[in-house]
Amino acid sequence: MKTVFFTGKGGVGKSTLSAAAAWQIAQKGYRVLAVSFDPAHNLGDIFETKLTHRKKRFKDGLYLQEVDLEKAASEYVKASMNLMKEVYGYLQSFNMDSYFSILKYSPGIDEYAALTALEKILAKEGTNFDYIIFDTPPTGLTLHIFALPGVTLAWLDRLIKLRKEILAKRFTIHNIQGKYAPEGVLLSYKETDDNVIKKLYELRARYSRVQEFLQGKDNQVVLVFNPDVLSLKESQRLLFGLEDLKLPFSIGFNNKVTGMSAETVKNIENELRKKFPSLKIQRILYSDNNLTAGYKLEEDIISPLLKGV
Ligand SMILES: Nc1ncnc2c1ncn2[C@@H]1O[C@H](COP(=O)(O)OP(=O)(O)OP(=O)(O)O)[C@@H](O)[C@H]1O
Ligand SMILES: [Mg+2]
After folding, report:
1. What is the pTM of this model?
2. I need a labelling partner for 196 at 20 to 30 A (CA). Which of 59, 120, 132, 226 fits?
3. Which residues lie below 8 Å from residue 219, measured CB to CB, with a gap of 6+?
């Protein structure tokens, strides 16, 4: 299974091109799932069909799905609550209910929820499809989601180190008290008996897996931009972000190219190439065909994609 993320500034054509790509790849006989991660979904509008968070067969091997980010966020909060209760159940004095009631407003929850939803789709659908095509939310949120595995791994390593220090201190206390420690107050000092460190290792394995996948050869992030200066500036920021995060990108679609001077179009592309010389740029003309269904774009979107992944 290979994945493609369509990213770019608001309104450049991420949804249109990701839908067209999904349609064209499916037309070649591949099994394709198109997933919208944009909170303002329009995958259903483009295919003129009603979609939910459950995948729906559109035609032949093409399936569509709109991720319900609100539902994902409340599931994420619930899962975090259960994890805390399971691991810290012995801390009766810590009033967790008040903590949970505000957790849903915490910064980063939407990003964690989106990442968890992404992991679930990869785990559940990885063997069902040849390609999963993602339509992403605006640049800032998308970069935050992509950055999360790395940020989380850095935190987890720190927490694991702290927990090891706690266990070492408990071991010292155990040695002092020995067999005279009163019944019921013994705290685990071995990693194999400690729920907290076990969970931390589990989380580390999970986030490493998703990070390896995102950075791996079966994934690619595609840039969509328009031949204008604002789109160029945001594209440069996005590509620098992808580079920092070591995410694979090699294709840029210069979308909605109209009758403007060839010079202008070229200048914008050259600006991008200056900093990212290996980026292959494909132009997609502005289509004034009055498309009834947005996915039926006549332009060839997938040749560079199928070569690139
Ligand atoms: N090549 C094209 N030719 C003609 N119209 C296009 C083309 N690409 C996109 N559009 C139109 O441009 C508008 C914005 O496109 P689209 O919704 O795909 O962008 P987006 O990047 O997904 O936007 P958002 O950030 O709001 O999700 C839509 O009206 C779409 O039909
Ligand atoms: Mg969109």
Report:
1. 0.92
2. 120
3. 2, 3, 4, 5, 213, 247, 248, 309
- Ligand 1, residues 6, 7, 9, 15: which to mutate, most atoms within 8 A of Cβ? 15
Smallest CA separation from ligand 1 atom 14, residue? 11
For the chain, the domains span: 2-70+110-308
3-state secondary structure the chain: CEEEEEEECCCCCHHHHHHHHHHHHHHCCCCEEEEECCCCCCHHHHCCCCCCCCCEEEECCEEEEECCHHHHHHHHHHHHHHHHHHHHCCCCCCCHHHHHHHHCCCCCHHHHHHHHHHHHHHHHHCCCCCEEEEECCCHHHHHHHHHHHHHHHHHHHHHHHHHHHHHHHHHHHHHHHHHHCCCCCCCCCCHHHCHHHHHHHHHHHHHHHHHHHHHCCCEEEEEEECCCHHHHHHHHHHHHHHHHCCCCEEEEEEEEECCCCHHHHHHHHHHHHHHCCCCEEEEEECCCCCCCCCCCCCCCCHHHHHHHC
Q: How far apart are the first and last CA of the chain?
A: 10
CA angle, 306 as apex, 144 and 294 as ends, to 5°? Answer: 70
**Homologous superfamily (CATH) for 2-70+110-308:** P-loop containing nucleotide triphosphate hydrolases (3.40.50.300)
Query: Cα(80)–Cα(78) distance, rounded to whole angstroms?
Result: 5
Q: Any residues with Cβ below 6 Å from ligand 1, and which?
A: 8, 10-16, 38, 42, 138, 255-256, 284, 286-287, 294
Mutate to test the pocket of ligand 1, among 16, 69, 228 (most ligand atoms within 8 A of CB): 16
Pick the ligand that lies closest to the CA of residue 222.
Answer: 1
Residue range 36-86, pLDDT digits in tens: 998 888 999 999 999 999 999 999 999 999 999 999 998 998 888 888 878
